[in-house]
Amino acid sequence: MPDAPSEFVAAIDLGSNSFHMVVGQEVGGRIRVVDRMKEMVRLAAGLNADNELEPDAAERALGALRRFGQRLRDVPPGSVRAVGTNTLRKAHNSDAFLQQAETALGHPIEIIAGREEARIIYLGVAHNSADVAEQRLVIDIGGGSTEFIIGHLFTPLMMESLYMGCVGMSQAHFADGKITEKQMNAAELQAAQEVEAIQTPYSRVGWGHVLGASGSILAVREVVRGNGWSDDGITADSLKRLRAELIRRGSVDKLGDLIGLQPQRAPVFAGGVAILHAIFEAFELKRMHCSDGALREGLLYDLQGRLHHSDMRDETIDDLSRVYHVDLEQANRVERTALNLRAQVDRQWGLRKDSFGTLLARAARLHEVGVAIAHNQYHKHGAYILRNADLAGFSTREQHQIGALIRLHRRKFAVSELEEFDAKLRTRMRRLAVLLRLAVVLNRSRTETPVPTIEGATGMVALNFPPGWLDEHPLTRADLMQEAEYLAAAGVKLEFR
After folding, report:
1. Within this chain, do residues 361 and 256 fall inside the same structural domain, yes or no?
2. How many CA atoms lie within 13 Å of 272's alpha carbon, on the beta-carbon side?
3. Co-location of 281 and 334 in the same domain
4. For 257-319, what is the HEC assignment?
């Protein structure tokens, strides 16, 4: 008898050219796709010269998200993962747009870094492709970026995201609607220059199998197959024939009857072909097979891991701790103390959500990560690492939240570090920072220390120690007196007795 399906899960990819949503059910440990939706939004085309999202593009996007949101009304809040990619990474007004977008969708939206996008793409491809013994090169040409991943089975080994996509390339070289040899050469040269940065290290590692994924590459596959130029993926010869055919037709307007090409793909097709041809030339590829899995499918499997307590983010925290030689015993002491304090005030301070406990725990585990650079100002070094490193599994927002807590865990309470967060989150982040600071102070001896009881209210926190304990620990008393001064400057009154 087959396993009963679990609750629905859903993934949304807010790409630079189109938005995709896939809904699935878990059956027997695997995800079975039950629904797909796609909206051609052309978000990248809506960026102006100042890299701000124009109102008409924003409204197209919000309309698509409202329709996605209706489909997701019955899906549990924790079972949906939505991510924005290159265009939202670039847009200077993405924060304002995201507030509206999350309201339209009814679920949180993350902006992920290019390498995180590459990791998730590989996960989607790996789960939707037959296992092969040799390493494989996976390439995904999106609207605003192109991802390159070398991996083995389900493990990515090298990941890179290059700033070139079918929308940007088409705008740069085919904006007049013409497709000439000169324009194609210029587009391919630009793509080749981008690829040059990774050409040698990738070729040195090598691969035995090449897979392409997502819109541009799948569109090329359909055209070369529909025209009889290749019946097994994309070959170098079939790609050259396609390139010649585009130039022969001479304009975007004349691509309407090109067999296999969907009309909505036509405006950005030449840009995608130019990028793919340059990649074939740079890596001397003879054939590329295609995968129907990509970012959104990878999101589903990544979400599945989180729901089953196999979270890539925890692996990343462990890796980071090893790389930067974090004192794990001390990190664990601070984590236990911080979580104990949080449990005592979670109701009063609005910190009952599991996500707040997880955020606090991760910041505690990494609060000394900056010591590997220098002990002086190590909280600032740690914050820089968290905000700027490529951390598998984490969104940009999550990295900034952990980075802010690390920055605020000692010395002057720099309230300005919280300005990037909205007012409600800012209040909770301030309270989490207070708890982390107290946990660090209480564990200064780097030995097990009894956790005091704590009371929290608006603008106030009180610690209660056993009778006589502070008299026996004058250093802790002195540290708390100093901490009271730091917190007073942040509008928080610390009492202890």
Report:
1. no
2. 29
3. no
4. CCCCCCHHHHHHHHHHHHHHHHHHHHHCCCEEEEECCCHHHHHHHHHHHHHCCCCHHHHHHHH
Q: Are 232 and 238 in contact (CB under 8 A)?
A: no
pLDDT tens for 455-477 read 988 899 999 999 999 999 999 99
Which stretches does DSSP call E strand in 102-182? Answer: 109-111, 136-141, 146-152, 155-162
Compute the radius of gyration of the chain from its Cα atoms: 26
Q: Give me the CATH number covering residue 212.
A: 3.30.420.150
- pLDDT-derived band at 2 (thresholds 50, 70, 90) equals very low
Please state the domain count of the chain.
3
Residue 405 domain flag: yes
Structural domain of 243: 129-291
For the stretch 16-53, pLDDT in tens is 889 999 998 877 667 888 999 999 998 988 989 899 99
pTM exceeds cut of 0.90 = no
Please indicate, yes or no, whether residues 333 and 191 belong to a single structural domain of this protein.
no
Residues 285 and 325 in one domain: no
* Domain-embedded: residue 478: no
Q: How far from chain centre, in Å, is Cα 80?
A: 14
Residues 59 and 32 in one domain: yes
- Is the pLDDT at 285 greater than 80? The verdict is yes
Q: Positive or negative, the Cα torsion across 380, 401, 101, 81? A: positive
Task: State the CB neighbour count (10 A cutoff) for residue 196.
Answer: 11
pLDDT at site 59: 95
The answer on 316 and 272 residing in a single domain is no
Cβ 169 vs Cβ 190: under 8 Å: yes
* Whether residue 282 is found in the same domain as residue 413: no
The pLDDT score that the predictor gives to residue 77 is 78
